[in-house]
Amino acid sequence: MKLTSFVPRDISLSDDFVGFPLIHQDLSDIVKYLGHLKRITHEGKDDYKRMLIAAESGSLFLGRTGAGKTHALHCVVNEAIKLDYTAVDGSLMLGKTVIDPIDVREFFDSCKAMAEAKPLLIVYDDARQLLGSRRQGMHSEDGDNAQETRPMLSEFRRQIDGLQYYDNPAYIIVTSATHIWHIDRQIARRFSRYIRFPRPEDESRKALTNYYLDKFGHDPESIDVETLSFLTDGVLAGKIEEIVSKASYKADMDEGKLTNKHLVMEIIRYLQGPPSDTYLTHEKKINLAYHESGGHTFPAYAVGLEPILVTITPSADGTYGKNFHRHSETVPPSSAKFYFANVITGMGSTAIYQEMGKSREEGRMGDLTLSSKSALELYALKNPLVKMTLGSDDTYLSLGLFSEENRMEIEGEIQKIKDAALTIARNIIRNYRDEITTFAEAHLLEREIMVRSEILQVLGELGVEPGHYHEQMCDRLKELEYPV
């Protein structure tokens, strides 16, 4: 059988694999292991080489599609080529619906012949067929592998076991969008190194975004990566590349510089789909700008939350405007202050309507519901039973296990929290009335999308002090008998 070389992209492990330091260490260990195998072979330590390869014949790169497995594979292959390994593409063997064991045998016979001259790296990218299955029958050799695949899997196992007898080292890397506990037990046992590619965390998303911005020729310093990382929570590494790529293309088509707006719009499009084609009159846009900025951004910032994003652009579901903020050093997550701050922010749209006559009615109704949920989270710190789960979804409250008297007590407490929050929100609106007008009409209405750095810059220029109402919020919490 004629073997085909695996041709990697021009990327390196040191420069192009970012965002996952622990995985980077695992990949570096693979490269060091390959170098060690080559060295001991050159020194004639064949028995030692056989023992090592018998213990570790290859690696599995596992994770969802787009998690970065193939990118890592190309990085490792390039490093192996530097060590004088020949990279062979085994994926071409997988073109058939059912792989014949003869094909497996002939492929590895050709690999063994090639390994007479040089060390070998055998690469299978997205090779789910070779890994079998053990969703049931986990303690049997064949698990629940289909009858027609069992001969191929048996042959593949034998060929892996035979790698230790090659003249030069041979190592296998298989990537697959699966979990280790779904792989045939005997196949998994022969791959002693499993590398799982997870969804990137905050620091990983920042590193990936910076990397791809640089790769596409943009200055990461000109982009609010903090906001982008927040918005891409849960997004896979490959999608971050896709988002930056599409935003870059659209910026080029506009014959302009890549902006935060390009990137945010691409993220929203990816998360929610294309925006609805609904026309907004200028008056409605103004109301929307006040609703999002004065109704949410200002109250959140005034009590100590950190603003992330404010928009008045349409969404796929036909709604308009978004407002994101998060906890801060003074308002830690899952604290009484955090829940109360969210209630205040939610009541902001009602406050700005009462104080300035600006807002959206449908938006206010949704905000009142969210405020009630945040108030319930706060009340749960005093009475944990209201949030205690029974089964997978139900709680004491949802099942109606409280008495009528207790239910009225809970509703009364929720209303007290919301009333207190509304009072603070109205104080904030009154105090910053002129600043809200400038922010909404001179900035948000013009830009339509403002990210964290832009929000903070404008608020600073307007003289709005961060957390100016934090102490008032804490005092009110104490009066309501919640921990501060």
Write the layout of secondary structure elements.
Blueprint: H1 13-16, H2 21-42, H3 46-55, E1 58-63, H4 69-82, E2 86-89, H5 101-114, E3 120-124, H6 150-161, E4 170-176, H7 185-190, E5 193-197, H8 202-215, H9 225-231, H10 237-253, H11 260-272, H12 282-303, E6 306-314, E7 320-326, H13 336-356, H14 361-380, E8 389-390, E9 394-395, H15 404-431, H16 433-447, E10 449-451, H17 452-461, H18 470-479
Parallel strand pairs: 1-4, 1-5, 2-3, 3-4
Antiparallel strand pairs: 6-7, 6-10, 8-9
Helix pairs in contact: 2-4, 5-6, 8-9, 8-10, 10-11, 12-13, 12-15, 12-16, 13-14, 13-15, 14-15
Could you please describe the fold and organization of this structure?
- This protein has 484 residues and is an alpha/beta fold.
- It folds into 3 domains: 13-197, Rossmann fold, CATH 3.40.50.300; 202-272, Helicase, Ruva Protein, domain 3 (Orthogonal Bundle), CATH 1.10.8; 282-479, Methane Monooxygenase Hydroxylase, Chain G, domain 1, CATH 1.20.58.
- 54% of the residues lie in helices and 10% in strands.
- The protein contains 18 helices and 10 strands.
- The protein has helices at residues 13-16, 21-42, 46-55, 69-82, 101-114, 150-161, 185-190, 202-215, 225-231, 237-253, 260-272, 282-303, 336-356, 361-380, 404-431, 433-447, 452-461, 470-479; strands at 58-63, 86-89, 120-124, 170-176, 193-197, 306-314, 320-326, 389-390, 394-395, 449-451.
- The strands form 3 sheets. A 5-stranded parallel beta sheet has the order 2-3-4-1-5, with helices on both faces. It has a 3-stranded antiparallel beta sheet with strand order 7-6-10, with helices on both faces.
- Helix 6 links the parallel strand 3 and strand 4 (170-176).
- Helix 8 packs parallel to helix 10 and helix 12 packs across helix 16 (433-447).
- The longest helix is centred in the C-terminal third of the chain and has 28 residues, at 404-431.
- 42% of the residues are buried.
- The model is unreliable at 137-142 (pLDDT under 50).
